[in-house]
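Whiteboard transcription, Tuesday session. T.W. wrote the structure tokens on the left side:
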């Protein structure tokens, strides 16, 4: 894990507070710890993960393994609005790939990227759990079903 430019201004006081609330930390605590770090920083800054390893003795490779395994964790800041486009089978057969292309084109983003103004983060997911609404796009906590490319553009405009 490397210290990145976005990490330079990261303040370790949130990590101080999280670790101060625990007597000791083992690898079994990693997932809840990373959730707290995510809640505190809005993402998992690599600088904080390295410091977590240094202070707890947990190898950075293990911390990084958990941090990159679960979809809920991300190592870079996300935009104010998270757009998730389903790439599951039910959505795919109903034209989900067109929604993916429309979002990518409208926002000039590939899967996993964030707009430079930090407004949107775009992700594709295996299934949003609402296959009956296929094809489905989700923005923050709102589901948009039976989408067409034109409707997707309207939805995006609503968040600009
Ligand atoms: S396959 Fe798209 S919501 Fe399940």
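and on the right, the sequence the group agreed on:
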């Amino acid at each position: 894990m490397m210290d990145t430019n976005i990490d330079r201004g990261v303040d370790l006081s949130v990590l101080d507070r999280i670790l101060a609330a625990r007597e000791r930390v083992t690898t079994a605590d990693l997932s809840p710890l990373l959730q707290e770090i995510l809640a505190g920083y809005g993402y998992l800054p690599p600088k904080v993960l390295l410091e977590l390893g240094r202070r707890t003795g947990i190898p950075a490779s293990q911390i990084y393994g958990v941090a990159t395994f679960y979809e809920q964790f991300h190592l870079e800041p996300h935009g104010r609005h998270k757009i998730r486009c389903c790439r599951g089978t039910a959505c795919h057969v109903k034209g989900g790939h067109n929604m993916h292309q429309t979002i990518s084109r409208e926002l000039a983003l590939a899967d996993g990227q964030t707009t430079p103004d930090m407004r949107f983060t775009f992700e594709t997911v295996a299934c949003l759990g609402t296959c009956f609404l296929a094809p489905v796009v989700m923005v923050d906590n709102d589901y948009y079903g039976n989408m067409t490319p034109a409707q997707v553009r309207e939805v995006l405009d609503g968040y600009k």
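Someone added at the bottom: DSSP finds seven helices and four strands in the chain.
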